[in-house]
Amino acid sequence: MLSIPPERRDFYALVDVNNFYVSCERVFDPTARGEPVIVLSNNDGCAIARSEEAKAIGIEMGEAVFKIRDVVARHKVRMFSSNYVLYGDMSARVMSVLQQFSPRLEVYSIDEAFLLFDGFTHVDIDEYARQIKEVVYRHTGLPVSVGIGRTKTLAKAANYLAKRVYKTGTFYLRDDAEDSLSQVPVSKIWGVGRKRTRWLNAQGVFTALELARMPDRLIRQKMTVTGLRTVWELRGISCLSLEDLIPDKKAVSCSRMFGRPVEDLASMEEAASAYVARACVKLRRQNLLTGYLHVIIETNRFRGPYYNNALGLFVNPPSAYTPLLSAYAKLLVRKIYKEGYRYNRVGVILTDLVSERAGQQYLIGPSYAESRQQRLMETIDRYNSKVNHGKIQLAAEGLGKPWHMKQNQKSQRYTTNWEELLKV
After folding, report:
1. CATH number of 20-82
2. d(C-alpha 228, C-alpha 212), whole Å
3. Which CA distances in Å does 260 have to 191, 278, 369, 404?
4. How far apart are CA 51 and CA 78, in angstroms?
5. d(CA 291, CA 255)
6. Per residue in 218-238, pLDDT tens?
7. Model confidence, pTM
8. Which CATH architecture has domain 11-17+87-234?
């Protein structure tokens, strides 16, 4: 390991919520604590999150539910349908708490964030990590693991050690902690995938410490500059900066598998309208407009004759007005729909995104940002967010929605819907 000048006191922390989806469910259903729990994918198809108890009885990530029904029954496994509204809100709460500890924060995923502690001089790093863990739990009820190191890669490794090796919940990977690095498999190093792991193992390299000691020339030759940066980061040389500015989105999409196969055109149009409406809400939250609408339809490639198709059109001027984009989506569906097929998916993708203020204006009349359309959408969004998501919707989205994906074991939207608040 390279020695770092003592006057430099910059650290990275990686904060990761343990078994995030499961932990969110347990916050509002304490009876699930200590029990084997799994959270299911769209249409309740397979396990996408598992508690430690579920892992211990052999349930694998991504395992199909129909294959583990006996295990579920024998061990009384609790199953929850995915509740993305709840998970998204809980994630936002965690990130808000983390900003109390550092204004330099990079949201890496829904359950992970990097923090940069720059200019620390007289701070007990171990104690600071414990404070982060305790305060996040106190404010959200979610358990987290905290790893701290001189670089982002070392912070990731420290998080692995905190969670899987020492099981302390927090760990500070010091500059001279070679014993600790020797306990991190190369397969668990951030940026080292399966292919590189196989090559490293063939060279007799199995741990992060062994990788950090490899010659630069060989690493660059076999693992490119990206691999060399990883090695330098393991040595304590920071090569990856904090991405605390969220890059502009290139596209917004909404796609779901149907709860049952759909054959009629009317249901396909309803689904396309409903998904466009959801995508438009995402657009407006970011003050964006779309200049291109893309619609995809598909059947199940493993059941019956297979058919898929896609079609798009330009939206000029760019817009986020749901009725307009819904009408366009229905038009596209009608053009690519074929009778005699059992469809299992519709998807919409909005691209060519521009900000509301930068959107093209009509030669005569206001821009979208100044229009009655924008004010109407703003009013509906505000009402739906305060009262009940989707309470006001287009008739084109349908009412019964028999095609809606299965979520038979979905928990309530405890934190975002007044009608579903937890009753004590």
Report:
1. 3.40.1170.60
2. 10
3. 39, 20, 39, 8
4. 10
5. 19
6. 999 999 999 999 999 999 999
7. 0.77
8. 2-Layer Sandwich (3.30)
